[in-house]
Design a protein that fits this description.
Maf protein; six-stranded mixed sheet; 6 strands; globular
């Protein structure tokens, strides 16, 4: 089975993508190449951060890899928190604080439209490819569910009556922004390899 490095230290993302690509690829984390440093995420767009992380691994370790960046983009907040989703309420990357801040900023607003966006940057044999996944939905007034991670308990995808936080991993992995981007990555890899 073909091995590929996933340039993230987030165990939740690794678990999700491993389950989505199971049986086709062996997904290895940064520990497999002895990468213990924090990979920079200093660009001002989601695609910029995805590219930056993959470029860093290629430049420092010389291996084929893919990276991912995701964000919640809320219409009434002009796309915020966006690229700053993980650290919206501060550098601690506290999901509860991030959710509380979003709910506070949306208090009294009727427009609850939002989308999750994922961009995957794949560096394979010297070439870069990107894959995007978007799922539309709305932000609820309060948390529902304890599953998932990040903003999942307040995001209700269009056409569903459960938040990502109420769905089990298999349900979420069928429809999420990350799943959409991973399917595009998977299709590309199947046709390429």
């Amino acid at each position: 089975m073909k091995e590929i490095i996933f340039a993230t230290a987030n165990p939740n993302k690794i678990r999700e993508i491993k389950s989505m690509l199971a049986g086709r690829y062996t997904i290895l984390g940064l520990d497999s190449i002895n990468c213990t440093e924090d990979i920079p995420e200093t660009r001002d767009t989601i695609i910029g951060n995805a590219l930056q992380k993959a470029e860093y691994i290629v430049e420092h370790y010389g291996v084929n890899c893919f990276s991912e960046d995701s964000g919640l983009e809320i219409d009434a907040l002009e796309g915020a928190p966006g690229v700053y989703s993980a650290r919206y309420a501060g550098p601690e990357k506290n999901s509860d604080a991030n959710i509380s801040l979003v709910l506070s900023e949306l208090k009294g607003k009727n427009d609850r439209g939002a989308q999750f966006r994922t961009v995957i940057a794949l560096y394979l044999d010297g070439q870069m490819h990107t894959f995007e996944g978007i799922i539309r939905g709305k932000i609820l007034n309060q948390r529902r569910g304890t599953g998932g991670f990040g903003y999942d308990p307040i995001f209700l995808p269009d056409g569903y009556d459960q938040t990502f936080g109420e769905m089990n991993a298999d349900q979420k992995n069928l429809i999420s922004h990350r799943a959409i981007a991973v399917r595009k990555l998977q299709d590309f890899l199947v046709n390429k390899l």
